[in-house]
Amino acid sequence: MSKPVSPAPLTHQPLRGLVLILGATLLFAYNDTTNKLLITEYNVPMVAAIRYITHCLLMLALVAPFHGRDMVRTTRTGLVLVRAASLALGSFLVSLALQRMPVAETTAIVYLCPVLVVLLSGPLLKEKVGPTAWLAAVLGFAGVLLIARPGSGLDPLGVLFVLGNVVVSTAYNLLSRVLAHTERTMAMLFYSALVGAIGFGIFLPWTLHGAAPTALQLVLFAGLGVSAWLGHYLFTQSYRYAPAALVAPMTYMHLVWAGVLGWLVFGHAPEPIALAGMGLVAIAGMISAIRRRRGQRPAQLAAEDGTTERAG
Q: What tens digit of pLDDT does each residue of 39-65 get?
């Protein structure tokens, strides 16, 4: 059994932290857009398998030589595996949603997750939840209602899939906070990739079908794994260089990138009412992020946020 891990030393370089989080959110939006492009031609389990297998191989090739056994050593292995399975299921659900919904709207609804994490951290993690958290929850749900309102044109099944992702992602992030004090960041990243690679990979003999990919599609397939791994890495590193209160609100640039890429690639521009809903979700998330970090020490923030990945 491993000893609880100490957070890595923090360096105060806020500009570097902001550049890293902007890069991470751009890669996440690229991953969503590429995923949507590929699942219009290929089935979701196959695309997910290639993404996770690539992600896992990259970690074995680029990370394992530097971290060695620390990359596979865990204290609470069962919970680490449950967390990784939650990420894989969340990826599956959000891919099913992206088959039916635009990138920007799907991404916005996913960002209900941070609000739910704050609300549930009270009864489940015994953290203080005050009126500000409930205000954020009201704003977040109001935003989702504007995005997925009747007459919005969104596929109802797609909305159900993305709400399922929110539920699974909430569990994933709560587990991240529980495990952050005992598990190494790279180990949690590796098991997330490994469980997804095995879980989707075992079905490849039955899902590996369809037209042979073009050269561009091969690049897109490879890009899924690279962007997932690099995005999570940049996300983790950003908290090492800038205060969490500065970095956390910038994660909502993901909504901006998703909107821009959705417009450029698919020609979809959200309606004004949907944009207002996205703004409410972003404000709710930022309120939750800032509220959560008041009174916490830098070491606590590094331990919690450094192991929190985007689920999807």
A: 999 999 999 999 999 989 989 998 888
